[in-house]
Structure formats: structure tokens, C-alpha cells
Amino acid sequence: MNIKSLLVGVMLMALPALAPNAFAGDQKPKIERAAAEKTALARVPGGHVKEAELETEHGKLVWSFDIQQPTSTNIIEVQVDAMTGEVVGMETETADDEAKEASRDK
What we know:
Layout: H1 3-18, H2 33-42, E1 48-57, E2 60-68, E3 75-81, E4 87-93, H3 95-105
Antiparallel strand pairs: 1-2, 2-3, 3-4
């Protein structure tokens, strides 16, 4: 893990504590990031988290994890409901999909 990834991870973990009401109105996650990450990684055997964030998707507060598998260049995005801990979405993103998303985010 490089220093940039480590700093981004620390900032993402600290953000909900610094601004707990910034997500989904006044909702605060009932499920901690570590528990949600464990749930997400169970869906992608051998994977490791490249990126994680707390976000609102379709009106739900979710932990979103981008997971990389060692045998693929694809990213598996796993969304875990931050209130119940249930997996509410999984999507495979190719390298092209990632590039398009990065371009849109700029």
C-alpha cells in the first residue's frame, strides 16, 4: 500500500466522525466500516479493498467498496447497507469503466 492510498483510507474512515450528518440527511451509519468491509470481502474471495466510501445510493446510506482480485483487472463494487449490514448491490467494473468514471469525476 502506498502512502497516498493510506492517507485516502484514513481520511475516508475519519470523514463520518468529522461530519456525521453529511450523509443521507441526519442518518448515521449503524454498521461500522470494518464490519461492512468484512461483509463485502466475503463476496469477493481473495480480493482487497482499493477504495471505500460512505455514500447515499437510491436514498439509502451505503458503504461502497471497490475490490480488486489478484487474477483480474476488473473491479468489483460491493455496496453494503450502512444501517442493516446487508449487501444491497454488486457490480463488475472493467478498466474502461473505471477510466470513464475517473474522467467524469474530474
